[in-house]
Amino acid sequence: MKPLFRLFGAAMLIASSALQIQPAAAQKVLTIATDATFPPFESIDSSGKVVGYDVELMQAVCDAAKLKCNIINAAWEGMIPGLIAGKYDALISQLTVTEARRKILAFSDIYDRPVFRFVAKQGATYEFTPEGLKGKTIAVQTGTPMDAFVTKTFPQADIKRYTSGSAPYLELASGRAELHMSYEAQITHAFLKSEDGKGFGLLGPRYTGKDAPEFGEGVAIAINKRNVELVKSVNEGLAKLRENGALAALNAKYFGTN
């Protein structure tokens, strides 16, 4: 009987060891969605990889918080419903924090406060009032702060809406739209520095969340309201990036500022 007891004891020891290592090995891989049509914040490179400022930031947050994350491209219009339904664990796509979104989503701490601008042909002059933009064609990405702002502020304009963040620039470059509104940094680094952006420029007021509620409090990572622990972990990761200078370095890499 002694050999049998020895075998049983060995089996129990192996099972115990497996149980001890299981938590680390079975750590959940979080699915983080981004709309990769909004360079330089998020886009797809020539190899098919999701890249950009938000992608690097999210990966750095995950590393700092010791989270396993898989960042994927997703359609803009399905991202928030997907997060609420549990399809995604978090969203990072230059999501502005607004009162309406706070009712259905949880957010990390703010990591940026963008400026919003119009872009149009150089030399064009517009009066940025409801009457001044009456009948003017404005291209925006649907469901964004820019869409909400121009819809409310310039009701007599001809507003064209597109599901991707890059489509409005095609309309602008082709002459099918007169103006486009987006983040100043996005217009500058993704369009004005490109071949298609030659002959175009920023114009009109520089808008922030202080000017209109549609522009929100700032930009943050969106998380399902039920996942309180993930909000805490993400905020801890962001705090580490601020403290160790990684966030400032990322801003300098993409925008030349910190």
UniProtKB/TrEMBL annotation:
InterPro entries: SBP_3_CS, Solute-binding_3/MltF_N. This is Amino acid ABC transporter substrate-binding protein, PAAT family. Residues 29-258 form the Solute-binding protein family 3/N-terminal domain. Pfam families: SBP_bac_3. Keywords: Signal. It comes from Bosea lathyri. PANTHER family: ARGININE-BINDING EXTRACELLULAR PROTEIN ARTP, MEMBRANE-BOUND LYTIC MUREIN TRANSGLYCOSYLASE F. Residues 1-26 form the signal peptide. GO terms for cellular component: cell envelope. PROSITE patterns: SBP_BACTERIAL_3 (PS01039). It is found in: Cell envelope. Belongs to the bacterial solute-binding protein 3 family.
